[in-house]
Amino acid sequence: MTGIIEFIQGHGLEILGFGVGILYLWWEYHADSRVWLASVVMPAISMWIYFSKGLYADFGINIYYLIMAVYGYVRWTSGGGRKKKEPLAVTHAPGWGVCVALAASMLLWALLAWLLIEFTDSTVPYADAFTTALSIVGTWMLARKWAEQWLVWFAVDAVCVGLYIYKGLVFYPLLYGIYTVIALLGYRKWLRMMKKTP
User: What is the four-CA torsion angle of 47, 27, 154, 170, rounded to 10 degrees?
Assistant: First the structure.
């Protein structure tokens, strides 16, 4: 019994983050605007975990997540700035959006890797920078409700599984393994949702 209590005490925040992460994923899968409410809680938990594990870029991106949670919620519930205040519909990323996403991903990856190498003791600068760069772009795409955001998250989640195992996390590799599978399922669901939209 003592071992279980010690395990929970040692991994309590990770367990809580896991639970909120599953709720977030459920709402994202269903394109429910409550996903942005979970986006406020999840970063607060994750920031502590990532900093303690030396995942500094992942720590830093959670500040961005907090800001994007407000932006995404307003955008989704107000119709994305359209005159009609209907909820924002799921759409494909336009050509310009794909170009911006690719360019931003590459630039952010290079910049973040350089910052981690030069200014931190990170043992995984390229992987940490990769997942962080794509997460920044994926969150922006999610806020615009583009279906292709799921493909970005698939790449992020798959890399995170290995990264978190390497860093000795227990529950987050499982969470991100689930995220990896759900990213593919979510993409298919959002494509079906688009077909049903008049």
Answer: 50
**How does pLDDT run across 78-91, given as a tens digit for each residue?**
876 555 667 888 99
Q: 46 forms bridges with which residues in the sheet? A: none
pTM above 0.70, yes or no: yes
Sign of the CA dihedral 179, 185, 187, 193? negative
Residue pair 155/143 in contact (Cβ under 8 Å)? The answer is no
Cβ(187)–Cβ(147) under 8 Å? yes
DSSP 128: H
Sign of CA dihedral 44, 116, 112, 130: negative
Q: Write the DSSP assignment of 67-122 as a string of letters.
A: HHHHHHHHHHHHTTT-SS-PPPPPBPPPHHHHHHHHHHHHHHHHHHHHHHHHHS--
- Reported as a single tens digit per residue, the pLDDT across 170-183 is 777 988 898 899 99
10 Å CB burial of residue 145 (0-12, 13-18, 19+) is buried
